[in-house]
């Protein structure tokens, strides 16, 4: 019999681990929950938990159960066992409970990502596995404590990065890089902000961080909750399968607009109005507006109980209201405290008169019509949407609240031209919804989650940062973004400013510089825009060996759309996904041209598949997405689609950095200045 190769033994371990996983799943399925608890609610909760566990234990075809092995130089456990660990997506144990595969998030797995020749962290051997489909087909060894072995790049990592990108975003758990791992494993108490050029793995790192935190603080985060915030639904659909693939089914996802959707948004603002409404100074205007209804009492409160009248005189009532006003309480909490304070004043009088009233009497007094009516006139209820509606339609009211905060011109810019009749008929804009959310929080504290990941964070307004910040006020946040990709008029000028608005000024700012997506020639081309859009940032690198292909093709104006469709047909001959990115206004014409050329296409966020690989992407939705090949239509139109040149060039930078293997630019108009070669004519 021929000697068994190391690969054969590894395959044996894979087969045994899969059998163990099947047994674990069968155990979970066989659990009899009929008589575990008499309580119907508890039984349902238990059933759903077991259901989730069964799902998490599925042996996903094509997803390798383990991708690495660590041999510690010395035994880790006291009993001398456990110096070899297989690292995978989830923990698998055999019938005796001994580990067959260790979760990548466990502390013993950490050296798989961090150990190096310089710092072997007790590791003698690190082995990476390569798979073809579900079959273990290769391995790669590093003897970290062997000084004679030369350090070399990983072919398996290169293969992973070069793999065609059809389908939704994948996890990167087998190839997380050391600088990424440091961010992933930052402690739950620490808020962090990651600045990174396009394709440096910010989104991937943020998602893996959530998975890590859930593993490390499962119970705490199950109670408080976690949330991933992305720029739009198509982006969220693109990333939504990463966490389930890592066994995490329960992380919520939302856009900022969805977080604050207390009213129906049907309107839009001018860039100027939206910028003012998104300015942090609005928080002060709203704070004043909320409290503007508080009035000092003008009449005493007289409470009748039986034959007796108890009278709280005006000066005493004034004192109570003033005291509540001076305290840093939510408006609603103060409003709840007021009747109790007035009732307490009555109780003191009763005691002085020799009565012995208890808490029940105080509650009864607080509920009397006299006290209630005093509260209504001194501390009226605030309806957040109605208050914002009044602020944006009543010039005198706005002037009063914004005095010394917004100048007259700014006030005019945010006032509605035609005030709506009511909250329902108002054409609320996204910025208005954020104002309403701020007022809601001034009235009643917004609940905080345990951890929030905020992706594409550069685009938020200060008021939006505040809305996110209050949703993690007692938890922590991972902020991900790229200043150079800020395309809103209010995009943040710096991370320090953004973190201050989020209420996390102490968060550390890390930078990722290694690009995993964009090939070298393409990133160099896109980086020509950097001096104009973010001069303080340096050009991203590319860890990819392939230089990639870059073609810039001038075409005649009349034939542009047809030429673009033909270019799509041309690149579709390659393997992988194709994104046709164009100015939003060009999308209908291009859809027509694609149809005329007999090419079907998808909308962004729809999953690409082997049969359907072409997506038509309006430039405004390109952020965060990636395609193997990108056909870019008319750069000048993308720039012209934005209110100012810098925003236009930033939008173009986003569009230019979506390609994994190749970029084909077609233009009839002259290219925007920074993209022209020195000495190149402006006209095509
Ligand atoms: N360590 C890694 N191993 C393999 N692939 C990686 C790694 N890090 C990132 N990638 C891949 O690189 C691509 C870009 O990653 P990601 O989308 O997270 O970047 P980003 O910084 O969020 O980009 P953008 O700024 O464009 O939003 C993805 O396909 C991701 O899977």
From TrEMBL:
The keyword Hydrolase applies. One of its GO terms (molecular function) is hydrolase activity. PROSITE patterns: UVRD_HELICASE_ATP_BIND. PANTHER family: DNA 3'-5' HELICASE, UVRD / RECB / PCRA DNA HELICASE FAMILY MEMBER. Keywords: ATP-binding, Helicase, Hydrolase, Nucleotide-binding. ATP binds at residues 196-203. GO terms for cellular component: cytosol. One of its GO terms (biological process) is recombinational repair. Residues 175-528 form the UvrD-like helicase ATP-binding domain. This is AAA family ATPase. It comes from Streptomyces marincola.
């Amino acid at each position: 019999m021929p000697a068994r190769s190391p690969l054969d033994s590894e395959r044996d371990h894979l087969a045994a681990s899969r059998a163990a996983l099947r047994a674990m799943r069968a155990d979970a399925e066989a659990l009899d929950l009929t008589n575990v608890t008499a309580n119907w609610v508890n039984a349902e909760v238990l059933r759903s938990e077991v259901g989730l566990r069964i799902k998490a234990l599925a042996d996903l075809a094509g997803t390798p159960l383990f991708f690495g092995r660590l041999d510690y130089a010395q035994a880790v456990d006291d009993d001398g066992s456990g110096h070899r660990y297989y690292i995978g997506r989830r923990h698998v144990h055999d019938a005796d409970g001994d580990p067959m595969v260790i979760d990548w998030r466990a502390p013993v797995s950490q050296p798989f990502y961090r150990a190096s020749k310089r710092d072997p962290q007790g590791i003698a051997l690190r082995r990476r596995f390569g798979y073809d489909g579900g079959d273990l087909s290769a391995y790669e060894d590093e003897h970290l404590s062997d000084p004679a072995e030369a350090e070399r790049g990983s072919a398996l990592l290169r293969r992973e990065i070069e793999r065609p990108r059809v389908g939704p975003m994948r996890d990167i758990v087998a190839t997380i890089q050391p600088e990424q791992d440091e961010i992933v494993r930052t402690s739950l108490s620490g808020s962090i902000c990651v600045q990174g050029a396009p394709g440096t793995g910010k989104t991937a790192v943020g998602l893996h961080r959530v998975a890590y935190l859930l593993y490390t603080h499962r119970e705490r985060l199950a109670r408080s909750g976690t949330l991933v915030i992305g720029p739009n639904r198509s982006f969220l659909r693109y990333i939504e399968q990463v966490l389930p693939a890592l066994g995490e089914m329960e992380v919520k996802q939302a856009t900022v607009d969805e977080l604050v959707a207390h009213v129906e948004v049907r309107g839009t603002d001018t860039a100027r109005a939206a910028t003012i409404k998104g300015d942090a100074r609005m928080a002060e205007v709203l704070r004043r507006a909320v409290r503007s209804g508080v009035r000092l009492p003008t009449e005493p409160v007289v409470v009748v109980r039986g034959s007796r009248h108890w009278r709280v005189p005006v000066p005493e009532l004034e004192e109570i209201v003033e005291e509540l006003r001076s305290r840093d309480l939510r408006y609603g909490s103060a409003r709840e405290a007021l009747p109790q304070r007035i009732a307490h004043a009555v109780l003191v009088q009763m005691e002085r008169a020799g009565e012995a009233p208890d808490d029940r009497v105080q509650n009864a007094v607080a509920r009397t019509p006299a006290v209630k009516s005093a509260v209504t006139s001194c501390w009226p209820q605030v309806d957040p949407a109605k208050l914002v509606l009044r602020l944006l339609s009543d010039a005198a009211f706005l002037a009063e609240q914004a005095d010394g905060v917004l100048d007259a011109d700014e006030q005019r810019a945010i006032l509605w031209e035609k005030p709506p009749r009511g909250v329902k008929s108002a054409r609320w804009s996204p910025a208005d919804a954020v104002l309403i959310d701020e007022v809601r929080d001034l009235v009643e504290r917004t609940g905080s989650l345990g951890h929030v990941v905020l992706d594409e964070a550069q685009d938020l307004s200060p008021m939006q940062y505040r809305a996110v910040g209050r949703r993690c006020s007692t938890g922590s946040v991972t902020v991900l973004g790229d200043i150079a990709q800020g395309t809103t008029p209010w995009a943040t000028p710096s991370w320090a400013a953004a973190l201050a608005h989020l209420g996390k000024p102490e968060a550390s700012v890390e930078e990722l510089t290694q690009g995993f997506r964009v090939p070298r020639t393409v990133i160099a081309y896109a980086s020509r825009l950097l001096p104009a859009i973010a001069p303080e940032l340096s050009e991203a690198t590319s860890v990819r060996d392939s230089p990639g292909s870059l073609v810039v093709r001038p075409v005649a104006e009349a034939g542009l759309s047809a030429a673009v469709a033909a270019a799509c047909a041309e690149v579709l001959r390659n393997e992988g996904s194709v994104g046709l990115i164009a100015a939003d206004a060009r999308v209908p014409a291009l859809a027509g041209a694609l149809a005329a050329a007999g090419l079907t296409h998808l909308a962004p966020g729809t999953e690409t598949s082997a049969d359907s690989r072409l997506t038509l992407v309006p430039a405004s939705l390109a952020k965060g997405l990636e395609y193997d090949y990108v056909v870019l239509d008319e750069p000048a139109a993308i720039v012209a689609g934005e209110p100012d040149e810098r925003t236009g060039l930033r939008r173009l930078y986003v569009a230019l950095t979506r390609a994994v293997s190749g970029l084909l630019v077609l233009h009839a108009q002259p290219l925007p200045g920074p993209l022209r070669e020195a000495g190149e004519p402006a006209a095509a």
